């Protein structure tokens, strides 16, 4: 029987990530739960086995429930009835299956009913579910909003809400509004404290809210009257049981049809303040968004896997001119690039998740005791690494998912344009990945300071110091040359001293950064496991070399005076 986890051994490879020993040690706190919770692991090996069992269960549910339901979900989608969102029937089946399998509260502590898994494992489960149906992954993965509630809510709020999430209740993050998309400083949903009712009341409209009729919402609202910027925004917890929020509209979208995207109206909706006032955007939304961006990295990787699977299967069956089309160079070139992008996305995803795990676990420990000097240094290091890698992961993986979905249709030829084939749905679903939770352009904005201050270059130089297997030395030397070219380009842009020029060329520098980092990650993976990653390392380095050369030529030949040719012009009357 199919299993979306065990069918792809590349995923399990990352359970042996160099940081996993430290992650388990920090997450389990020397296995202190073993005396209180029968299901808690007793040592590292037992913990890894627990993760594998969870992922096998997830892979089974994904392959044998969620994937078979995906077509019906895509066709039916959610409904709007009397101000309430109703899931598609097969989405309800998926929810029941995930609940029966115990796939909620994955990262939450056991004392709240959670599974106490690290981000690496949650990302693996998220990837597996996305491969089956990216729209259901959207609903399921929003349980990660509980991490923000756990990190910034009071203990009373944790006790009140987190066990419900662990039992299968759904979440949403209500951020955007009709006039506040990427620019969240413009959020105007009003929060007013009512002395009479002893709670906050929310009034206004939210738009483009994923899973907007969820059980528990985290809401960004303006609590400080007279303010117009981010300093007047706070985060609130809204419980659907309290009433006061209705769904006005469900968007009709290009893809991810099973994931309801709602417009909500708040009318004196009772809510609780999460954390402190004025910190909603500055601190809490940033934490929410970073978690969501890691989730999109997993979603993108899962869809990339499914697109590759569909393309390989079709190419091996479709015969033309006396042989199956997977023997044609034009086709196997596409297939090999798809696999290389998939493997590179996955490596970057789990590398990023591991960085997040270390710093989050240390932050959690810090709530109970002071950190030692070495732990403080470790926290600082991995917070910075996670902050640098997250925009790379989200941007590169989502763009590669779009490219792989596009190429899957190309491999199918005319059949790929027919609605009966899965690849058309993958193509439609993938398009949102590089848009929501911060467009690729915004990931570039988040990453550019690490490009210009030398953080990425330092990471690349450090990675180049790591040994590779003898057969990969030649490829490593080619990556080293790419790093030199990259450094020249970064210096060229910095030396120009023109902010507009830097902003204009930033995307090229960002892509070069991602391609070089991913090349080195794949070389490291191929050194440890050549049978899984050797081919992809070879293909990806050559592809990156081609792209870096082209982008370098563009950057180093560009001068500020040429920007005038690219600036937007007003439409003709």
Q: How is the topology of this model organized?
A:
Layout: H1 9-13, H2 20-28, H3 44-76, E1 79-81, E2 84-86, H4 89-100, H5 119-132, H6 134-141, H7 145-152, H8 155-166, E3 171-174, E4 190-194, E5 199-210, E6 216-222, E7 233-239, E8 245-250, E9 261-274, H9 280-317, E10 319-320, E11 323-324, H10 329-366, H11 373-412, H12 422-430, H13 440-452, H14 455-465, H15 473-496, H16 499-528, H17 530-556
Parallel strand pairs: 3-6
Antiparallel strand pairs: 1-2, 4-5, 5-9, 6-7, 7-9, 8-9, 10-11
Any overview of this molecule?
- This protein has 17 helices and 11 strands.
- 49% of the residues are buried.
Helix content: 55-70%
Largest sheet report: 7 strands, mixed
**Bulk shape:** globular
- Topology as a string of helices (H) and strands (E): HHHEEHHHHHEEEEEEEHEEHHHHHHHH
Question: How would you briefly describe this protein structure?
Answer:
This protein has 573 residues and is α+β, with helices and mostly antiparallel strands. It is built from 17 helices and eleven strands.
Features:
573 residues; alpha+beta; 7-stranded mixed sheet; two-stranded antiparallel ribbon; 17 helices; 11% strand
């Amino acid at each position: 029987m199919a299993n979306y986890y065990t069918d792809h051994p590349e995923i399990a490879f990352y359970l042996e990530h160099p940081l996993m020993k430290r992650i388990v040690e920090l997450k389990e706190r020397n296995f202190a739960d073993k005396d209180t919770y029968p299901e808690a692991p007793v040592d590292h090996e037992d913990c890894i086995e627990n993760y594998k069992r969870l992922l096998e269960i997830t892979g089974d549910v994904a392959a044998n429930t969620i994937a078979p339901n995906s077509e019906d979900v895509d066709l039916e989608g959610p409904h709007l009835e009397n101000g309430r969102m109703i899931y598609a029937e097969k989405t309800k089946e998926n929810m029941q299956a995930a609940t029966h399998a115990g796939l909620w509260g994955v990262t939450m502590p056991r004392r709240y009913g959670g599974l106490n898994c690290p981000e690496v494992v949650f990302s693996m489960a998220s990837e597996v579910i996305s491969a089956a149906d990216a729209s259901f992954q959207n609903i399921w993965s929003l349980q990660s909003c509980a991490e923000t509630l756990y990190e910034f809510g009071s203990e009373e709020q944790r006790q009140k809400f987190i066990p419900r999430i662990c039992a299968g209740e759904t979440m949403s993050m209500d951020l955007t509004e009709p006039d506040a998309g990427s620019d969240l400083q413009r959020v105007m949903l009003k929060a007013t404290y009512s002395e009479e009712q002893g709670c906050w009341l929310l009034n206004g409209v939210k738009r483009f809210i994923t899973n907007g009729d969820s059980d528990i919402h985290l809401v960004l609202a303006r609590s400080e009257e007279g303010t117009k910027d981010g300093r007047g925004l706070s985060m609130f917890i809204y419980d659907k049981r309290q009433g006061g929020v209705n769904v006005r509209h469900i968007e009709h979208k290009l893809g991810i049809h099973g994931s309801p995207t709602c417009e909500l109206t708040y009318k004196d909706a009772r809510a609780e303040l999460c954390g402190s006032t004025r910190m909603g955007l500055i601190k809490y939304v940033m934490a929410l968004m970073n978690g969501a961006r890691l989730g999109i990295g997993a979603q993108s990787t899962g869809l990339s896997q499914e697109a590759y699977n569909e393309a390989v299967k079709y190419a091996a069956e479709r015969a033309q001119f006396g042989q199956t089309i997977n023997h044609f160079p034009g086709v196997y070139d596409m297939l090999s690039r798809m696999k290389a992008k998939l493997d590179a996305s996955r490596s970057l995803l789990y590398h990023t998740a591991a960085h997040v795990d270390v710093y989050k676990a240390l932050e959690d420990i810090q709530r109970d005791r002071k950190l030692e000097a070495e732990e403080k240094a470790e926290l600082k290091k991995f917070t910075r690494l996670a902050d640098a890698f997250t925009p790379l992961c989200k941007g590169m993986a989502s763009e590669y998912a779009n490219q792989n979905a596009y190429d899957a249709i190309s491999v199918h030829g005319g059949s790929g344009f027919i609605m009966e084939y899965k690849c058309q749905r993958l193509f439609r679903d993938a398009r949102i990945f590089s848009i929501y939770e911060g467009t690729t352009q915004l990931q570039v904005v988040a990453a550019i300071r690490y490009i210009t201050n030398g953080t990425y270059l330092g990471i690349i130089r450090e990675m180049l110091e790591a040994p590779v297997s003898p057969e990969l030395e030649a490829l490593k030397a080619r990556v080293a040359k790419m790093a030199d070219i990259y450094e020249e380009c970064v210096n060229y842009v910095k030396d120009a001293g023109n902010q507009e020029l830097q902003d204009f060329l930033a995307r090229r520098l960002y892509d070069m950064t991602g391609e070089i980092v991913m090349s080195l990650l794949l070389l490291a993976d191929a050194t440890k496991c050549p049978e899984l990653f050797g081919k992809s390392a070879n293909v990806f380095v050559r592809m990156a070399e081609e792209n870096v050369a082209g982008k370098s030529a563009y950057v180093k030949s560009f001068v500020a005076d040429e920007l005038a040719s690219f600036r937007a012009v007003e439409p003709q009357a």
